[in-house]
Amino acid sequence: MDEMVRQWRRERPDVDPSSMAVFARLTRAHLAASRAIEATLGRHGLNRGEFDVLASLRRSSAPYRLSPGELARALVLSPAATTNRLQRLEERGLVVRRPDPADGRYGVVELTGAGRALVDEAVTDHVATLDRLLADVPGADRAGLTAMLAAVERTAVP
Q1: What's the pLDDT tens digit per position in 69-126?
Q2: d(Cα 99, Cα 93) in Å, to the nearest integer?
Q3: What is the pTM assigned to this prediction?
Q4: What is the rounded CA–CA span in Å between residue 56 and residue 52?
Q5: What is the pLDDT of residue 83?
Q6: For residue 1, what are the CA distances in angstroms to 16, 18, 21, 134, 144?
Q7: DSSP-assigned states of every residue in the chain
Q8: Which end is more exposed in the chain, N or C (fewer Cβ atoms within 10 Å of the end residue's Cβ)?
């Protein structure tokens, strides 16, 4: 990366390549993190999308239940994509879909005992993987890094 910056500065001294370096490093970090996360979740028989569904339900507090619409919003997915994930998880006995106890006309998705046990194990390993990836970033710097990345994200969203 440093070599790329040096080369651009030599060839185009009128252009500051520092933003290129930032985004190249973000891309490399994202790819490395994605591989590590997929490997961690794979040891639990989950892909990232399935984990996201289970984690969203687990974070919702007891009784670990959300409407399909709430779940789709939490996952930032279309209802169709959410349905596909739910079908796979339901076939594995990790979630159930049932009528809403408050209003039988609407369905809810609920984490099963097996789903809760699996997501609790997976999240422990997932956090350990993320902590390992951030091992060289001092704890005091993590909040600042998070804030900086949030600023980039806000700017990127139209």
Answers
A1: 889 888 988 888 888 889 999 999 999 998 877 766 668 999 999 999 999 999 999 9
A2: 17
A3: 0.85
A4: 6
A5: 85
A6: 14, 10, 6, 20, 23
A7: -HHHHHHHHHH-TTS-THHHHHHHHHHHHHHHHHHHHHHHHHTTT--HHHHHHHHHHHHT-TTTEE-HHHHHHHHT--HHHHHHHHHHHHHTTSEEEEEETTEEEEEEEEE-HHHHHHHHHHHHHHHHHHHHHTTTS-HHHHHHHHHHHHHHHHHH--
A8: C
Per DSSP, what are the bridge partners of residue 107? 99
Residue with tokens 């919003």: 73
On whether the CB atoms of residues 5 and 20 are closer than 8 A, the answer is yes
The set of residues, in sequence order, having a beta carbon less than 8 Å from that of 77 and lying 6+ positions away, is 85
User: Which residues have a Cβ under 8 Å from the Cβ of 152 and sit 6 or more positions away?
Assistant: none
The owner of tokens 């994509």 is: 81
> Is-contact 126 52, C-beta < 8 A?
no
